[in-house]
Amino acid sequence: MLYDLTIQNYRSFKDFQIDGLARVNLIVGSNNSGKTSLLEAIYLLVNQNKPQCLIDLLDNRGEIALTKASTLSNNRNLISPTYQIKHIFHTHQLSFDQTILLESQKDRPLSLQIELSPINRQGQLFEDIQDEELSGFELSFIYKPDEQIRIPVLDDGSVETRFFRVAKSPRPSLFITAPPCEYLTTDNITFKKLAELWDGINLTPKEDEVVRALQILEPDVERISFTSRQTSKSGIIIKMRGQRDPIPLGSMGDGIRRILTLAMSAVNVENGFLLIDEIDTGLYYEVQADMWRLILETAQRLNVQVFATTHSWDCVSAFQEALGNVNSEIGKLFRLDMKYGKIRAVEYLAQDLKIALQQNIEVR
Q1: Is there a single domain that holds both residue 146 and residue 204?
Q2: What is the per-residue pLDDT across 265-309, written as a single tens digit (0 to 9) for each?
Q3: Residue 320 contacts residue 354 (beta carbons within 8 Å)
């Protein structure tokens, strides 16, 4: 569990600290205040020796460069997606003095530096690239003093996906295993990913927990199943009480799909992390308090730390209502705002949040 977080030079954060993190953390703030960037920083930090996670984030934001043919001598016709990396740095520029620091110091210290440095052509990845394609930079992921993973940067300031798939530390640590972590964006999750999550809980008691979550929206849900149809709308079917035939998930609306995604992700990351951007997406306000009760109870029981963002007053109100039914220390709200040119985090304990909402004080 993270109790504190430092972010330097990552996207909108020049130098940012947040302390007193709870089991469940709701992050609010105006547009461009850094809510999504905060989730991304946590995702990278807890997956510190898995640099391919950066590709997930670049892809989520659509920071894709022009696709180019690979120049590997034995794979010249291979097409490999490429991604621009300059926007992950606070200055949106590539230079040798650029270093991102992500760090948590309390309890179990974690640290990740992502830095641009002059290229060192040693290593198989670099040997297979033509000189004219290289930029003179390499992107290094440093997660221990003597361990790093190096990725070549191409002449247009981009990185190729294939390098992340095969990159390894020359001295792989035997002691670093990334905890389970799921990062949910506002986009619909793919059928393949949902099927992977289902495989992780199929025929276990956690399957029943997912059914109970769906009953927040549809009390008559009895069972859920995945079929061979490879779409999330027709490949997932739900058995309803009183109905002879199962109903495709796609016929039941976006809300039940969102609850399904939240529930399956939560029960799959026991002893890990769940990151959710715009958690209220697709959910009617009247069910959001029940959704938060589900999240709070699951997080506490399965030792999951949750970070979620929202713009919604209804979502904040539902969060406060749900906190009234549990140990109030389990959840906190943090508002990100700008002061003296820096993003800061303002903490609201459960009691603070209750008073603010009663007095109609804006906390978003």
Answers
A1: no
A2: 999 999 999 999 999 999 999 999 999 999 999 999 999 999 999
A3: yes
Looking at the structure, tell me whether residues 56 and 162 fall in a common domain: yes
Structure tokens belonging to residue 331:
């959840």
Task: Please write the tens of the pLDDT for every residue from 43-102.
Answer: 999 999 899 999 999 999 999 886 554 444 344 445 678 999 999 999 999 988 889 999
Number of domains within the chain: 3
**Do 154 and 67 have their domain in common?**
yes
Q: Which two tokens stand for residue 69?
A: 């043919």
* 278-292 burial: b if 16+ Cβ within 10 Å, else e: bbbbebeeebbbbbb
Residue closest to 264 by CA, chosen among 222, 330, 204: 204
Given a contact cutoff of 8 angstroms between Cβ atoms, the answer to whether 39 and 63 are in contact is no
- With a CB cutoff of 8 Å and minimum separation 6, the contacts of 230 are 191, 192
Model confidence at 107, pLDDT cuts 50, 70, 90, reads: confident
What's the domain range around 235? 188-255
The answer to the question of residue 324 being in a domain is yes
Average pLDDT over residues 241-249: 93
Residues 237 and 210 in one domain: yes
